[in-house]
Amino acid sequence: MSGARGKGGSVVRFLRFLAHLMADGWTVPAGLAVAAVVTLGADRVSSTAAQALMLAGLSITLLLAVRSSARQAVRGSGR
Amino acid sequence: MIVTTVLIALLVGLVEGTEALTVVLAVGLTRGWRASIGGTLAGLAVLAAVVVLLGGAALHAIPLQWLNLLLGTVLLLVGLRWLTKAILRVAGLVKMRDEEAAFAKTLAQLDSPAERSPVERSPAERSASARIGFATSFGAVLLEGAEVALAVVALGARPGTTLPAVVGAVAGVLAVVLAGIAVRKPLARVPENTIKLVVGVMLSAVGTVWAGEGLGMSWLAGQLTVVVLIAWYALLAWVAVRWARAGSVARKVETGRATTAGAAR
């Protein structure tokens, strides 16, 4: 898992795994989208880019979780 | 990291302890304090055993890098969920938890009007009633305490963090117990959602750092990474609250328009 080579790939796999664990219907496509965007350079991604990628992926995951839960809450309350 | 560990464990203990106390108090008042305290102690014993077994033995058999990845993932899952829930509550989309309402509901469930008063009950009825009280108390402590145990195991699994995690969680739970004994009422004034928001931010930040280390990263900000990430997740939470509020208002307007158009047809 260490070394610059493959670090981006590890991050992508981690984000996809997390997305599966948090699956509310939206996280899997979100995780796959992040994976698709970075797959091109995944094996050569630097440590800095891997950190930025991880933070971006987790931030998107949180925002999409909020959006999905907010929609469910609004639907549930009949608003 | 030690201060962060103590603080997170203390706040998790405080929030979950407050929720468990509501049920334990209701059981004590309706089914007797013996059943209530007995169930609580049994629940705490099971949780302590889980912490010792998982934290003391199982996790130490895993290599540090894999341990970081595993614990980081667990903390992220718990942290992001707490954060999502707290954001929705702050945005007004989900009701705030009301300890007094939860207390009244549990009291009503346990104190059924069909039941005779404790004095009129036969020994067999009293025993059955106490067993229900014990099980209710035990279940509440186990359910609410599971997240505390998970946090203690996850936060305390890395070298040098076991004691801070245990001390923090025990201090949080002890504070709730002492406050409960003093006021003999549910702790409605504990700002549960604010604490959940803070804990969600902190758990997500620590989880990100550990998971990143598990993936072989060495964070650019070094020791300050946790602080930077706490600030980042706090900012993100603020953005998410505004976003959720705006989205909710837009959907209300859309629904209103659709209803008006439907009525006009």
Tell me the series of helices and strands of chain B, N- to C-terminal: HHHHHHHH
Give me the secondary-structure category of chain A: mainly alpha
Instruction: List the quaternary state of the chains.
Output: heterodimer
Shape of chain A: elongated
Low-confidence stretches of chain B are: none
- What is the distance, rounded to the nearest whole angstrom, between the alpha carbons of the first and last residues of chain B? 63 Å
Radius of gyration of chain A: 15 Å
**Tell me about the biggest sheet of chain A?**
none
Provide the structure class of chain B: mainly alpha
> Measured on Cα atoms, how large is the radius of gyration of chain B?
22 Å
What is the percentage of strand-forming residues of chain A? under 5%
**Helix count, DSSP H or I runs of 4 or more residues of chain A:** 3
Largest protein interface? A-B, 32 and 39 residues
Mean pLDDT of chain A: 66
Number of strands of chain A: 0
Q: Count up the helices of chain B.
A: 8
Cα-to-Cα separation, first versus last residue of chain A: 48 Å
Classify the helix fraction of chain B into a percent range: over 70%
Strand content of chain B: under 5%
Shape of chain B: flat
Mean pLDDT of chain B: 84
Brief description of this entry?
Chain A has 79 residues and is an all-alpha fold. Chain A has helices spanning 7-21, 27-39, 47-77. In chain B, helix 1 (2-31) packs parallel to helix 6 (162-183), helix 3 packs antiparallel against helix 7 (192-214) and helix 3 (64-90) crosses helix 8.
